[in-house]
Amino acid sequence: MSWLRALKETARSGLKIERQRLEPLVAIRGAAGLAVVVGAALALFGPAVAVSSAFGAFQAAIATLQRSWRPRPVLALLSGATLAVSTFLGYLTSTHIALFVALLTLWTFLGGLSWAVGPTVGIMASSNVAIMLVTVTLPGSVAAAAGHAAMIAVGGIVQALLVVLFPVRRWGAQRDALADALAAEADYARRLRHDPTVSFDPAPLMHARSAAAVTPRQARRRPAELHGTRGVAERIRPVLASLADPAVGVPADGPARDRVRELLDAAGTVLDAAALAVRHGEAVDVPPAAAAALRTPDTAAILSGPSRRAALRLIALLDDVVATARGAGAVESDHRTRQGLLRLLPDALRAVRDELRPGSPILRHALRSSAVVAAGYLLGTALPFGHGYWAPLTAVMVMRPDFSQTYGRSVARLCGTVVGVGAATAVVQAAHPGTYVSAGIAVLCAFGMYLVMRTGYAAASVFISAYVVFLLGTGGEDWAQTVPQRVLLTLLGGLLAMLAYAVYPAWETPRLHHRLADWLLAGGRYAAAVLDRYADPADTADVRQALLAARDTRIAWREALNKAWHEPVRARALSRDTAEQAGRALAQAGRVAMLIEAHLPERGAGHDAEPVPAAAALAEVLRHATEDAAEAVREYRVPDWGPVHEVVDRWGTKEAADAVLRGSAVQLLDALDALAGALAAARDDNGPQTREGSAAR
């Protein structure tokens, strides 16, 4: 993609308004907490303290709106405490510009590294730096700075108390994650009716798994319908694929296929009903037609062999979904223990340390953002505009580890600032509001921002800009001077952020082949683990962990691919078509491994759990072949699947008596050959490349 087209696409994405479900009650709660803090501070301490405490409450409410599985009160408290510390330390050095710039650079660098822990932590750290730039200008002494910091922390405490006292959709995030996973499987079941080999996006299941990680205290308080349902839903997906696939199930046409389509449609209806019930905390209402389709005795008469086993297992699993969604039946422990914040500190430090290496996108982001914020502050201070902090404030708020978000947010920030400041100016010139009226309008702007925060950064920037203008007006800022200065300095900060990424980028495009190799390696290990269990049902190999690793690498590949398509660099090793073909091939290989897993004998199944020795040989050769293939992909070579072909070709009807295993092995080889074919075609189109030459590009 050319630079011109990349700029056009990122600008369009930054101004895009997304259709998201609004949560007015949550927005009202956040605005109410802000109003309480501002009103009390105005009455007790005056406008300057009210402004700083308002920033604390404002930021704490934003923290509770982040997409995080942590308890909302904890996020609010953490936000208020860290902002209070940042403000106090910032004020201590603010009188010496060299010390303040050094602290600002260090704080921004650490905030950039915090993205290694997760986006929620990264956003909170960036916001702390941005707000610190404003709040350090408010106190007049060290004692006053300590008081301002304390009021900022109080703002976080107030927001946390409101979340506890006035919960809105308690467990709502976990309900939505589980409901989305069930709805995704319902959609998958319906798509299988028309395309038996259609791909399934595992992201909803991964999100539901993350949502199921709770503390022991939360586990005791969690609603009954959130127990067990996800575990059952995980087992439904491979059964759906196994039932629909013609290679291991029923023929593509005929009465058996018609019956399979009825079962898939009924499964989709039941899963949708369960998703709706979980999302709203209501009773499951299964339509009678779907229940009848699942209960008809014709299933056992029409289907036979693997398809009959898959159908019976699907019916039993759907019964479990309905029972667990109702909070009844055999409830299993369906949660992963989430550690407290203090216990997570070693893992967080380890994640940050892992990013301290050359070529790390997170390290590049930290270096880039700290340099831009320091330069923006010095430029803003040197320019004769006053309020020089607007330039670094804008830069730190828009900069992200990837190109598209940084450029898109820069455009959205500028447009939102112009609209927000213009609207605020018109209100001021027409009404000349006083201190309390300005504070009230600022609270209304905060409510608007909370309401539209998830619909797009441009819309949120409008309310943020107006909020800051009215809030600073509460403290006596000169309206006429603040407006034009802020627009110009916002433009400067956005341009610095965009220029920094162009000069010191962290492109995802040159790393695509490494992401593909990671997915290939994890997928091969998952398939080998499944085959090991097939060869020895008593094997204790953790197939589940191998599956999760394969899902993680697949999602990482997809996210990298989405970022790469917006970057103004050319992927010479992996064109867009090649990448899509390779992705489809690996997704198909993962689907086949899932089919094999669906037919694994249950542990403790007695005489039914018969070992298949042929699977052990295939598992061993597949494990080594995928390791060699992953290395080949990293070195821009075409994988060789010859050893895998030799094992499968040697299989006779006596050695591999299991028809499901043999049919699946052939499908797996077809998928791996498709991957090799896509990479070979790309190599032929681009010409021979050496490893050193490709890396240099």
UniProtKB/TrEMBL annotation:
Its domain of life?
Bacteria
Compartment list: Cell membrane
Q: Does the keyword Membrane apply?
A: yes
UniProt membrane topology term:
Multi-pass membrane protein
In the UniProt record, does the keyword Transmembrane occur? yes
One of its Pfam families is FUSC_2
Which residue ranges traverse the bilayer?
A: 31-62, 74-91, 97-117, 152-168, 371-390, 410-428, 435-452, 458-475, 487-507
> Which parts of the sequence belong to the Integral membrane bound transporter domain?
377-499
Give the principal location in a single coarse category.
membrane
Keywords (alphabetical) are: Cell membrane, Membrane, Transmembrane, Transmembrane helix
What PANTHER family does the annotation carry? INNER MEMBRANE PROTEIN YCCS, P-HYDROXYBENZOIC ACID EFFLUX PUMP SUBUNIT-RELATED
Q: Which family does it belong to?
A: Belongs to the YccS/YhfK family.
This protein is called: FUSC family protein
Origin organism is Streptomyces xantholiticus
